[in-house]
Amino acid sequence: MKLFTTISEMQNYLLSQRAEGKSIGFVPTMGALHQGHLTLVNRSHTENDLTACSIFVNPIQFNNREDLEKYPRTLNSDAKLLEAHGCDVLFAPEAAEMYPENETPFLDIEFGMLDKVMEGKFRPGHFRGVAIVVKRLFDIVQPSRAYFGKKDFQQLAIINHMVKSLSIPVEIIPCDTVREPDGLAMSSRNMRLTITERNLAPKIYEILLNVKNSVGKIPVPELREWAIKKIEEDPALKVEYFEIGDKDSLMPIVHWNHKQQAMAFTAVLLGNVRLIDNVELFS
Ligand code: AMP
User: Alpha-carbon distance 98 to 167, whole Å?
Assistant: First the structure.
């Protein structure tokens, strides 16, 4: 596996590969890799001639300084895992490489309500930061396909919207959420949980599944209230939001409607670790 830290090295290498007619699959990450990320890498490896990954803890998508500073950084072990899972080239730039000092990162796109609800409401500026970095990475890598996890479902909606708005020639491949055996969605932030918090964390998915089982049986607002109460039964868990919304618009749903594909989304604070998860309610 090749490892590059500069944009020009990465571009030159991929230019030569593209000239050989190779399709490029791309998996952007922030590192601290787990099986969730590696599933995306495996899938890219089977669907493309070459798999490129990036590891970049993108400062402009963090609206909380502590979260940025505490974000785990494990480049050496990540590189080994990537190589073992079929990654051909890893791009791991420093922030100064991606954001030269004399330039203010900017992206001229409107996201409508997609970046105003849920994560967008609680993490102002987060999705614009995500879109800016992903656009930059797409410009550098110019992938045929790019792989994103449904665990970050709203992020996936933002990327799809950006690709459409800017007519970026890439196929976005959504990948199912990979979970621990007890149901907890894998996340790089899980390693920051204390043992007690880790034992409580599977409750989030458990309640999401309970909500799924109650679709059409309990009115939406009541079910939502019930879910929040149930998660917060243990004072260590604090719900930031719990929403039942439309799969495409992400807007809240008030009544069950067979024509609408509903999803449940939540963000929960466990101590100072913030976990998000979601489930499709229609399948
Ligand atoms: P991150 O490193 O958190 O920015 O994640 C990089 C990519 O991996 C994103 O597309 C995430 O949605 C995806 N991802 C993270 N955790 C999981 C998971 N548990 N299952 C599937 N995909 C995931």
Answer: 22
In this structure, what token pair is assigned to residue 103?
């330039």
Residue 276 beta carbon below 6 angstroms from any ligand 1 atom: no
Checking if the pLDDT of 209 tops 80, the result is yes
Q: How far is the CA of 186 from the centre of ligand 1 (A)?
A: 8
- The closest of 115, 106, 169 to 133, measured between CA atoms, is 106
- 231 and 203 in contact (C-beta within 8 Å)? yes
What's the rounded mean pLDDT across residues 2-24? Answer: 98
CA 138, CA 43: separation in Å to the nearest integer? Answer: 18
Residue 283 maps to a domain: no
What CATH number should be reported for the domain holding residue 221?
3.30.1300.10
pTM above 0.85, yes or no: yes
Question: In terms of domains, do 165 and 208 share one?
Answer: no
